[in-house]
Design brief:
One of its GO terms (cellular component) is extracellular space. This is Angiopoietin 1. GO terms for molecular function: identical protein binding; receptor ligand activity; receptor tyrosine kinase binding. One of its GO terms (biological process) is positive regulation of receptor internalization. With 408 residues, the chain is mainly α. Among the domains are: 126 residues, no CATH class; 42 residues, no CATH class; 80 residues, Gamma-fibrinogen Carboxyl Terminal Fragment, domain 2. Helix content is 59%, strand content 7%. It is built from six helices and five strands. A three-stranded mixed beta sheet has the order 3-4-5. Strands 1-2 form a two-stranded antiparallel sheet. α1 packs across α3. The protein is rod-shaped, with a radius of gyration of 79 Å.
Amino acid sequence: MTVFLSFAFLAAILTHIGCSNQRRSPENGGRRYNRIQHGQCAYTFILPEHDGNCRESTTDQYNTNALQRDAPHVEPDFSSQKLQHLEHVMENYTQWLQKLENYIVENMKSEMAQIQQNAVQNHTATMLEIGTSLLSQTAEQTRKLTDVETQVLNQTSRLEIQLLENSLSTYKLEKQLLQQTNEILKIHEKNSLLEHKILEMEGKHKEELDTLKEEKENLQSLVTRQTYIIQELEKQLNRATTNNSVLQKQQLELMDTVHNLVNLCTKEGVLLKGGKREEEKSFRDCADVYQAGFNKSGIYTIYINNMPEPKKLYLKGHTGTAGKQSSLILHGADFSTKDADNDNCMCKCALMLTGGWWFDACGPSNLNGMFYTAGQNHGKLNGIKWHYFKGPSYSLRSTTMMIRPLDF
């Protein structure tokens, strides 16, 4: 505030100087302002200037007689006067500046001392406030650091506990890993043994396959030879059957003749020597008995081909059908029993269905099975059933097998 008042006082003095100079030189037409900046202080100087009226008036005087002049007019030297005036003015300015400088220096000393004292007091108060604030902040920071240290210690304790737990779990895992590694090694050894055994089995299996292939080839060649033999036998059988048919016709003709003769003798009451009862005569089959005129049930003597002794069979007549098919026509099918499997199935049909039959592949018909009562016959494979009569699930109570020739 003191410095500002000093500058204001200096400006007032300079203004006064300018005003006094202006009053002193009313003849001056204009002023020139010079401003000098020195640090934070600014100095303004007002310099007067002359308009040169005297020179113009003189010129006017000479101009009135310009036509009468024989030579150019010599103007008086006003620059030296102007310089003298300026030097006088500058001396006055210099004296004023020296006075101002002395005044400013004296005032500045006291003001600077007061400013320094105030600054020291203010600085001391500020430092005290700052110190108090720093102490409070330091105490607060110390308290916070204590809290943080406590938290860090607690966290460190928890981390140590977790580290111990992790160490224990790691130890357990390492132990389990070692056990599993040992088990894996054992399994690997077992796998090696199994692989070795598998390789051996594969070698044996390959040898067996080679052996089976050889046996298959041998069997195929044997089957081929047997097929050829069977074909030859079939041809011979056909020829023998043809010959046998001729002989059978001749025998039938003879039997008819004998029957006619016997009938004639019976009508005439003649008893042939060595004659036998009609029932005791020999016949080839049931059809032969029927064609001979016997239609009563009884025991008859049947001579079967290729058998030296005759067989006595009880013959009984029957009429009717059993569904769509009244008889089973066999086309060379073999008869299968429990000890002789002649069917076309991988299993033994006679053993599974508890009875011998002309099985093809354990079909839905079997007249040599077991009897099941009503309600228990459904879903039974080994029951007495005839597919063409009432289906494969109907259990028959009993069956009677009747045989006749194909051409009967």
